[in-house]
Amino acid sequence: MLDISPFTKTFNQICYGGDESRVFEDYLDICICCLSGQRYEDEYLSIIKRYTKEKVDLFVTLFSQMVILMDNNGAGLADCLGEFFQTHITRGAHGQFFTPPHVTDMIAQMTMGEEAKEKTIMDPACGSGRMLLSAAKVSRRNYFFGADLDNRCSKMCTINLCLNGLIGEVAFMNSLTLEHWGGYEIFLDEKRMYVPTIKKLNAGEGVLANQKFSYNKEEEPAKEKSYKTAIQVSQFKMDL
User: Fold this and answer.
1) Residues whose CB is less than 8 angstroms from the CB of residue 85 and which lie 6 or more positions away in sequence, other chains included
2) 3-state secondary structure 98-134
3) What are phi and psi of 64, to 5 degrees?
4) Are 75 and 2 in contact (CB under 8 A)?
5) What is the number of alpha carbons within 13 Å of residue 110 lying toward its C-beta?
6) Whole-angstrom Cα distance, residue 138 to residue 40?
7) Are 50 and 42 in contact, with CB atoms under 8 Å apart?
8) Distance CA 30, CA 23 (A)
9) Rounded Cα–Cα distance for residues 230 and 182 (Å)
10) Listed residue (182, 177, 185) closest to 215, CA to CA
11) pLDDT tens-digit profile of 175-225?
12) 150 close to 182: Cβ distance less than 8 angstroms
C-alpha cells in the first residue's frame, strides 16, 4: 500500500482547527490553477488569501510531497490523492471506496494489449482515475476520458492525468442521464513547450458533453465517424 503519511502530516498542519473537506477542495483547486498555465490566477489568489503565509508555504510542501508519491520511485502512476481522499476525507461515506490498484491493474492487463495506441479509453465512474492510470501502465499512447458525479473526484482524476502526462478529458457529469455540469481538458500546450496543461470546460463543453467518444479527429472522415455515448460504456471499456 502507498505510504501517504508525509502528505497526511502536512495536510493536518494546514487544516488544524479548520474544515478538512474545505481545505482539501481548496488544495485541489490550487493544483488545477497551478497546472493551467496561469489561466486562473485570480481564482488562485482568491483561495490563498484565506490562509496565512505559513499555511500557503505548507501547501507548496504538500504539492511537492504529492508529486514525489506519484513518482512512485520512477514508476509513476500512483494514486496519492485517491488514497488520502477515501481514508481521511470521506472515510467511506455513502459507500465511496475506490477500486484497489492491484485490481485495476489486473483489469487493464486483461482488457487491453501493449499495441493499443491512439485509442479512446473511458471510465464513466472514474473516482480519482485509478482505472485510467492502470490503463496507462499498459500503454500511455491513448486518449483518456473520465466522468464522475462527485466534482472532487473529477478534480483528482484531472490532476492525476496531468501530472502523469496523459491527455484527455474529465467531466463532472452523470454518466447515466448524461447531465453535464463542467469538466477539464488535459492537453499539450504549444505555448508552454507542449507541457501537459489543464483547461476548464463549462457545462455543455467538451467531447463527453456532446456524447462524442472518438477523440482522434484524423482517424476517419468526419461524416463516417462513429461516436459512443457515455451511457453505452461499461465500468471499464476500451474502444479497441
Assistant:
1) 24, 128, 152, 153, 156
2) CCCHHHHHHHHHHHCCCCCCCCEEEECCCCCCHHHHH
3) -65, -40
4) no
5) 9
6) 33
7) no
8) 10
9) 15
10) 185
11) 999 999 999 999 999 888 889 999 999 999 999 988 755 545 454 444 333
12) no
Task: Identify residue 234 by its one-letter amino acid code.
Answer: S
The domain segmentation of the chain, as residue ranges, is: 5-94, 95-238
Q: What crossing angle do the helices spanning 101-111 and 130-138 adopt, rounded to 10°?
A: 50
Q: What is the grid cell recorded at 21?
A: 473537506
Neighbouring-strand partners of residue 189: 195
Residue 83 C-alpha cell reads as 488514497
Q: What length does the chain have?
A: 240
| 200 bridge partner residues | 184
CA 3 to chain centre: 20
pTM: 0.84
| DSSP 8-class letter at 145 | E
SS3 237: strand
Cα–Cα distances in angstroms (integers) from residue 59 to residues 3, 14, 19, 27, 29, in the given order: 19, 8, 15, 7, 12
Neighbour count for residue 137 (Cβ, 10 Å): 16
**CATH number of 95-238, picked from 3.30.210, 3.40.50, 1.10.3470, 2.60.120:** 3.40.50
Q: In Å, how far are 59, 63, 222 from 50, measured between CA atoms?
A: 12, 18, 48
User: Which amino acid is residue 16, in one-letter code?
Assistant: Y
- List pLDDT tens digits, range 15-33: 988 899 999 999 999 999 9
> What is the distance between the alpha carbons of residues 6 and 152, in angstroms, rounded to a whole number?
21
